[in-house]
Amino acid sequence: MVREGYTFGLPLLAAGAGALLLHWTAPGAVLMALALFVFSFFRDPQRVIPAEAGAVVSPADGRVVVVTEEEFEGKPGKRISIFLAVWNVHVNRAPVAGVIARVDYRPGKFYGAMRARASFENEQNIIHMKTPDGEMVFKQIAGWIARRVICWKKPGETVARGERIGLVRFGSRVDVWLPGNAEILVKPGQAVSGGSSVLARWPAGAGG
After folding, report:
1. Distance between CA atoms of residues 106 and 57, nearest Å
2. pLDDT tier at 113 (50, 70, 90 boundaries)?
3. Predicted confidence band of residue 41 (pLDDT cuts 50, 70, 90)
């Protein structure tokens, strides 16, 4: 479990236990249930990271909602969007191995993460990554419930494929932009697991 789980969960657990000791059964039960939910939400299971060359792994657990060709910052590319429900693991992982080139925080709205406009108008971190063979962009996007995007890495840091790099709290969305010649391996509606599901493959000979 990530440390935020203890930050939010332990006070609820303590309050619930105190209420039960005072025989305030209903409030105590509610607080204990909330504590269990928080501990579950912030869980951080181990994942088997694919070793195949060129693999681009999912940055989060969830369901693919968009696969499209779309420019980013004037460059042709492909975008994969993944929706995270509140019961999904919300730890985010690096889709590829490389260097964190830039992390741009953009304040914004808090539309429901399932809405298409959330990718462009909601609060988000835009994480630019460089590999020896190209660049890709990964977005952490806040939703209606998730109102905090957290990136644990800073520009200049090197990360491994599947390495934990951040968190979005309580339901959200992540977007991955890849070069136009990347081979997409998923489709809308498909369930994916962060760090282990392969979303795409870099062009032959590319690293990742």
Report:
1. 24
2. low
3. low
Of 172, 193, 196, 197, which is the active-site residue? Answer: 172
pTM for this structure?
0.79
> How many Å apart are CA 197 and CA 178, to the nearest integer?
16
Query: Considering the domain boundaries, does residue 127 fall inside one?
Result: yes
The answer on 163 and 187 residing in a single domain is yes
Helices and strands in the chain: count of H runs, count of E runs: 3, 14
Shared domain for 23 and 89, answered yes or no, is no
- Residue count (the chain): 208
- 18 and 95, same domain (yes or no): no
Q: Indicate the residue type of 13.
A: L
Q: Are 143 and 118 in contact (CB under 8 A)?
A: yes
| pLDDT range class, residue 207, cuts 50, 70, 90 | very low
H/E stretch holding 36 reads: helix 25-41
**Which domain covers residue 36, as residue numbers?**
3-41
Burial grade of 94 (CB within 10 A; 0-12, 13-18, 19 or more):
buried
Q: Give yes or no: 196 in active site.
A: no
Q: Are 19 and 30 in contact (CB under 8 A)?
A: no
Instruction: Name the pLDDT band for 50 (thresholds 50, 70, 90).
Output: very high
